[in-house]
Amino acid sequence: MLSRLVDHLRANDEIVNYNARTRNAWVADKASKLKQGVRVLDAGAGECQYAPLFRHCEYKTQDFSKYSGTPSGTLAEDWKYGKIDYVCDITNIKVDNASFDVVLCTEVLEHVPRPIEAIQELARVLAPGGTLLLTAPLSSAIHQKPYHYYGGFSTFFYKKILPEFGLDITEIKPIGGLMKHVAQEVSRVGRVLEERAPKKLSLFLRYVLMCWLPKYLAKLDDEIFVEEFTVGYMVEARKRCDQTNITSPKNGLLLNKIKF
After folding, report:
1. CA-to-CA dists, residue 247 to 37, 191, 204, 258, angstroms
2. Is there a contact between 172 and 235 (Cβ–Cβ < 8 Å)?
3. 65 and 135: one domain?
4. Is residue 62 situated within a structural domain?
5. Beta 39-43 vs 58-63: how paired, if at all?
6. pLDDT value at residue 2
7. If you ran DSSP here, which 8-state letter would residue 209 be given?
8. Residue 258 domain-assigned (yes or no)
9. Using one digit for the tens of pLDDT, what is the confidence trace for 150-179?
10. To 10 degrees, the CA torsion angle through 80, 86, 87, 93?
11. HSE on the CB side for 105, CA within 13 Å?
């Protein structure tokens, strides 16, 4: 029975890590549709996990490269940066205007002290007619300490801010709803109890929290979808073709000069 339980728990990774799985699949789909040689910037690339998806592109990376991992705690992680082409602040990338056809920025805005300025800079380096692929959490635990400043990037944030920099949203998708979100956190409760108070976690309770209940809730997500509790959104936006005069936020705002 115990071995069967362990097998169930291993299979549960699809539920526990649905956020990253959904996001990664979305990026992979977008990358597969790009033509050979398209100029791509992965902004806040970190470990460069998406580099293999863009082998057919002219793929460049940016990151501030200061995070060194989280040695302990529930969200402990080792960290090793990939090959970073532009080591700099995301609000001041040392490239010319319109340098890229596609800009990818996933799970970065929450780690940036001035996220709106970051979006402005991404719009600047994006060519007119180019595509911005953007994700950020609506709900997230504190992670990558001490570089976690924000959460709560809603559809209203994107619909308000992106057009101000000449970016028209072409797609916006929630990453699951309430049921999947709770399923993930119920499983996390089980893992925390297992690590910190194993005597409080019977074999039966371990099965309920880390296997049965997460699977049951996740299966309900499509049927009883509650978007208000999604963990975040996947956003695709297109830069308007008449947008040629957005400058770096380090060089002054030009919002009032953008053509609408």
Report:
1. 26, 47, 59, 10
2. yes
3. yes
4. yes
5. parallel
6. 53
7. I
8. no
9. 989 999 999 999 999 999 999 999 999 999
10. -140
11. 29
Q: Hey, what are 140's tokens?
A: 């997230």
Residue 150 has a CB neighbour count (10 Å cut-off) of 15
Return phi, psi of residue 168, to 5°: -100, 125
Who has greater pLDDT, 56 or 1? 56
Gap between the Cα atoms of 14 and 218, Å rounded:
10
The average pLDDT across 14-38 equals 96
β-strand partners of 168: 238
Q: Does residue 214 share a domain with residue 139?
A: no
Burial of 214-234, coded b for 16+ CB within 10 Å and e otherwise, reads bbebbeebeeeeeeebbbbbb
Cis check for the bond before 146: say yes or no (omega within 30 of 0). Answer: yes
The token pair at 190 is 């089980």
pTM: 0.89
Q: Which amino acid is at 48?
A: C
Q: What's the rounded Cα separation, in Å, for the pair 87 and 107?
A: 18
Q: Which two tokens stand for residue 126?
A: 């994006």
Where in the sequence is the domain holding 119, given as residue range(s)? 34-175+230-248
Name the domain count of the chain: 2
**In whole angstroms, what is the distance from residue 158 CA to residue 153 CA?**
7
Task: Provide the 10 A C-beta neighbour count for residue 92.
Answer: 14
